[in-house]
Model the fold of this input.
Amino acid sequence: MKKVYIGVTAALSISILLFGCSSKEKDVKEEVNLGFDQAKKVEVSSVNHPDVVVNTIDKQQDINTFINKLKVDKWDAAEIPADAKKENVYKIYQEGTVKLGESSNKNEKELQQVATVTTYKGISYIDVEIKNLNLNLKVPNDVSEYLSSQGQQKQ
Done:
């Protein structure tokens, strides 16, 4: 009887452990969004003319569409080819964080740049910079095409 009790306890412990690990892996995969879901504005500039904004995405519905089309969960870390030529720069802005001791004015919406995404001509690679962290990533072809099309539009 003692062996059966130990066997059931061991099997139950292992199954709980495995279930917990698979749950954490799923949560991590779903949580990879780099904070883009809190974006309030995206400015698109050409690398050749970084001071000229060719497209601004600032309506919440358009921002949500933009974030969904990025398919962040499908990005993979990769080395960008040496001969790659930069194409567009996307500056992503969020509302500033209210710090302890500051008043939160709902009417004042000061936006701060939190990330920069740089695309490359003709290849499905991007460079993401968030708080001095620089990531080189390979993205799906449709994401690359979508980003290129956003750099061509004017609003």
The longest strand covers residues 86-95.
